[in-house]
What does this fold into?
Amino acid sequence: MKLAGVCAVLLLLTGPSSTKEEQKNDPFTGIENEKVLPMLQHLPRQHGGMNVPPVDGRFLYDLILENGYQRALEIGTSNGYSGLWIGLALQHNGGKLVTLEINPLAADEARGNFLKAGLDGVIEVRTADALEEIPKVPGTFDFIFIDAWKPDYYKYLRLVKDRVVPGGAITAHNVTGGSQRQMRDFLEAIQNDPDLETIIHPLSGQGISVSIIKSR
Ligand SMILES: C[S@@+](CC[C@H](N)C(=O)[O-])C[C@H]1O[C@@H](n2cnc3c(N)ncnc32)[C@H](O)[C@@H]1O
It folds into this structure.
C-alpha cells in the first residue's frame, strides 16, 4: 500500500462515524455468526481480565475486514478470545491466523474454543515461546496482534517488522495506562521508526497501537 493508502487507513480508523459510535455502544452490532456470537459475548467474563474487552476485539475485527488482511499472526492467545474476533474477520477475507501461546493449558483451551466456533480451519494454535517460534512461522504477514508479556513487546516487534508487507498493520494491546512503563522501548520505536505510521487508540482504556508499514 502506498503512503496515500496508509493515510486513508489511518483516517478511516480515526474518523468518527455513526457506525463506529453504534459499535462503541454495542460491539456485537452486525455480528451474525450464530456459533461465534455467544462466545464473543460471554467468553471474557470466564477469564478474569486477561482477554481484550469486546470493544477492542471489534476494533481488530473491523481493521482486518476493512483492509482485506489475510495473513495474520497473534502473539499471546490465552483462551482464544481475541483470536475469535481476528479469526472471524479472516474467515470472511479467506485468510489464516497463526496464534502463539506459551502456556499449554491456555493453548488447549483456545483450540477447543476455535473448534466450537467452527474456526479451527482458519486458526492454527502453536504452543510455544513466541520469541523462539516467530522465526519458524513461514512467509510474510499483513496483520500482527501483540498481546503477550509486556516487557518483550520490543523484541516481538523486531522479530516481525521486516516480515510485514507494506500496508500491513502491527497492532499491540495495553499501550496506554499502567502497562506503558513496561514497554517504553516498544512505544518509542513504533512512534519514531520512519518505516511506520503509528496511531494509538484509547478504546476500552487499555489502548491499541496500530502501526502501518509504509512502502519501502
Ligand atoms: C493478555 S493474555 C492474551 C489474551 C488474548 N490475546 C485475548 O485477548 O484473548 C497474554 C498471554 O500471552 C502468553 N504469553 C506470555 N509470554 C509469551 C511468549 N513469550 N510466547 C507466547 N505466549 C506468551 C501468556 O501465557 C498469556 O496467555
User: Anything to note?
Assistant: The pocket of S-adenosylmethionine is lined by residues 50-52, 76-78, 81-82, 100-103, 106, 129-131, 147-149 (CB under 6 Å). The CA atoms of residues 114 and 120 lie 5 Å apart. Residues 3-213 form a domain with the Rossmann fold fold (CATH 3.40.50.150).
